[in-house]
Predict the structure.
Amino acid sequence: MDLKNINQIEDAARFSSNEVVRLGIATLFIVAIMLFASITLDTINQHYMLVAAAMIGGYMAMNIGANDVANNVGPAVGSRAMTLTTAIIIAAIFEASGAIIAGGDVVSTIKKGIIDPSVIGDPNAFIWLMMAALLAGAIWLNIATALGAPVSTTHSIVGGVLGAGIAAGGMGIANWGTMGAIAASWVISPVLGGIIAATFLIVIKRSITYKDDMRAAALKVVPVLLALMAWAFSTYLALKGVKKLIKLDFTTAALIGFGIAVLVYFFTRVKIAQQGEGLESSKAGVNALFTAPLIFAAALLSFAHGANDVANAVGPLAAINDALLHGGYHSKAAIPLWVMLVGAVGIAIGLALYGPKLIKTVGSEITELDQMRAFSIAMAAAITVIIASQLGLPVSSTHIAVGAVFGVGFLREYLKRSYQKMLDEIREHHQGEDEAEVNAFLERFTKASVIQKGIMLKEMKAKKDDAELSKKERKSLKKVYKNELVKRSAFKKIIAAWLITVPASGTMAAFLYFTLRGFMMP
């Protein structure tokens, strides 16, 4: 056996060992939930059902941590603004803090109002419906994480509730208008995120990196960008992150955000001026100015995510708890502290154990990111949610973040192809001339600003009569080099996962409902 084969065996053994450790820790968490619930909830009627629901809720929370949290920290890790370990620590702390501090005291028992549970009538059937929905959503998230596909946890649980609801009450139980709006969000979320992220990247390029003196441009523009970021994130947190603690309308939230943005502008202008003294006038130098803001963005996005999306894990669990305590269905259910802790701790554990895979997917396996691109993605995540909230559009934070990554990647492809086309055009127009002269022109063109490039191309095209091209040469000008800066395999895999999330979790939930009902109910 040669050395290569021995190394492969050792790598496989190490991977297997790590998987066993992760699985063991996850199992211990579920067992701990079972023991805690068994001891503390034994006075509740049919407490064994609540124990089972608590275990499934913990499993769902771990899958949310493994899959969904990557969207908040992935771009910052991919751009090297922070290490993977730092990202996991920050996300775990702020996800749990958001869930416990701002997760709310009550939760809607039926997410998005997608079914009418009054059609069912039987409280036990409602409990098994929610149990099946929760388990199906968790299983689908687990599968998606194993495949390396970031999917919407909200859509996973929505599909589960829909599928189990139809199994329990027939097609008439579903609110198809609401489901149509959710289906529309499959397109709205990524497109909005992609457009906004690409727009910010274009603004950064035109106002900083396309300038002759990047350092001077950055000292003027970056404080404005950071103030805008402060406004967006302050407004986002006021509207979404703390909405269960205090209700604020958009105008009030925007004014609070504007006040914070003004303070941030004056503070960062001084700091960046100090930092600029030793700043290199290059893309690498400018990128360094966005490192700290990206860390803050990752923390704030994680806090808001914990406050909002923990309900995907504990909402059905809270509904089951409420149904067992009070009998029957209620549109709102109280969230006991132990239920919120199951969600918060589960998200943190899932992130630490299985989050790195999806963080790497979002951060580096779709397209190459630097700090400026990651900044554009973070801005898109906050602003898209604000716009969607005001327009009443149902959007997915996962789809927004990943759509923003795609938007940045496809913009890079477009710019690269356009630039290559310009170089081809220059070479064609100078065909037959001295090679040194052509190379000298290309060197001047490469170093020129955007405005100067336009002037050079205009002057060159004005001489086209003197350098008439053949039909074959003109046809070659239409060829654009296919510099694919977005991995098509990742793009196809993620889009496919998005499209089948609701049907997949719905089908599983229906199957699980019939199975559970067959075993547990007469």
